[in-house]
Amino acid sequence: MTEIDIGGLFVPPLLICALLALPLTSVCGNLLQRLGFYRLVWHRHLFNTALYTLLVALCWWLPSWLAPLTH
């Protein structure tokens, strides 16, 4: 992936993925809280950091996974 031009400002795609993963992490965290999942988690903040990292990676690799399906 190359840099994305937003109004003359070149933004790295990883930054876009990181910003996109923030609200997704919040939504997933709220859902896990309502389901009572955090009772099973030893260290909630560490788990949330790992969840955020996984969502950033998913956002980064998802376009490359979907690219062969669009051709």
List descriptors.
71 residues; two-stranded antiparallel ribbon; 70% helix
Protein model, in words:
With 71 residues, the chain is mostly helical. 70% of the residues lie in helices and 8% in strands. The chain contains 2 helices and 2 strands; from the N terminus they run ββαα. It has helices at residues 13-35, 44-70; strands spanning 4-6, 9-11. A hairpin with a 2-residue loop joins strand 1 (4-6) and strand 2 (9-11). Helix 1 packs across helix 2 (44-70). The model has no long low-confidence stretch (mean pLDDT 90).
Write a compact overview of the structure shown.
This protein has helices at residues 13-35, 44-70; strands at residues 4-6, 9-11. It is mostly helical and 71 residues long.
